[in-house]
Amino acid sequence: MDAKLYWLFGFVGLYWAYCLFWGIKGAIQSKTSADYFVAGRSIGIWVFVLAATATSFSGWTFVGHPGLILQEGLSYAFASFYALTIPFTGVLFLRRQWIIGKAFGHITPGEMYTEYYGGNAMRLLTVLVAFLFSVPYLGVQLRASGDLFHVLTDGLVSIEVGMFALSAVVMIYVASGGLRSVAYVDCAQCILLALGIVILGGIAISYIGGWSAFIDGIASMVKQNLASGTKITPAGHSSLVALPGSIQAVSANTDAVGSSWTGIMCMTYMFALMGIQSSPAFSMWAFANKTSEPFQLQQVWASSLVIGIILFTFTIVQGLGGNILES
């Protein structure tokens, strides 16, 4: 077995041990339903800032975002503005929900909506919405994790084994420890997410040969596109570095000229992601906070500034750098 696999299994083992530790600790500390579901309303400032950022920008930002830049070029990279749109709904709703939860002792969003509207219909609808969102989302995430294990281990671990192993760890620490366990695991995930993107971007620049070689590589690919007539926008530019217009009226994305990531496509994609911080899960994050101070720190500084800078620099370096290294 290659030395890299020992490192991989070692770090994965440490991470899983950390997850299980917080699952056990959370189970011990959870004495009431409020302890389990909203961590006793005691989540601190920096725990929320890190955990909410990790929840908002998860594995799809780490893997999928650079991957789409690799595939589509800078036309998709404009969607990095979701670093602004995701926390925008948090700006609108989280502090208000925190105040309501504090005043009336709500533990779940279903309780909040039931008290406001009356009757159990809203409670059931909230559970249904959470279920219909969470199950497909978890399925896609866990399947992607299994694929990642399979690739990183050079096929030693099958997709199914990797997927079920991760599912077991997630189920154990979430089900046993509740929101407190999720919060402290997400703190580590946020740090790993940010550092991982930055480090991989630095590695890409290093393999390319430096910043000048990176710029020259982009220029070379643009010239190749123009010379071959491939990936050309309706305006005659390379879609590697230009948007293919504001909108294209086509029946399928494969029929789009240059790229399907037009201005309207990027904008509606960013609007769709605004649902993350208005979801039932984030209502519970709001209820769990000790004070309302963390909201502005997470929404403005962590999401919009720090993650925004990372998305507009290092994910672009990863995506375009991958194209340069392949060419």
Output the radius of gyration: 22 Å
The secondary-structure element order is: HHHHHHHHHHHHH
In whole angstroms, the N-to-C terminal distance is 30 Å
Shape: globular
Major pleated sheet: none
Low-confidence stretches: none
Mean pLDDT: 94
Helix content: over 70%
In short:
The protein is mainly α and 327 residues long. The protein has a domain at 43-110 and 180-326.
Q: What report would you give on this structure?
A:
The protein is mostly helical and 327 residues long. It has a domain at 43-110 and 180-326. Helix content is 76%, strand content 0%. The chain is built from 13 helices and no strands. It has helices at 3-29, 33-38, 45-56, 59-72, 74-77, 82-104, 109-117, 121-152, 159-208, 211-228, 263-273, 280-288, 293-326. α3 runs parallel beside α13, α7 runs antiparallel to α8 and α8 (121-152) packs across α9. It is globular and about 65 Å long.
How would you summarize the topology of this molecule?
Layout: H1 3-29, H2 33-38, H3 45-56, H4 59-72, H5 74-77, H6 82-104, H7 109-117, H8 121-152, H9 159-208, H10 211-228, H11 263-273, H12 280-288, H13 293-326
Helix pairs in contact: 1-9, 3-9, 3-13, 4-13, 6-12, 6-13, 7-8, 8-9, 9-13, 10-13
List keywords for this structure.
single chain, 327 residues, mainly alpha, 76% helix, globular
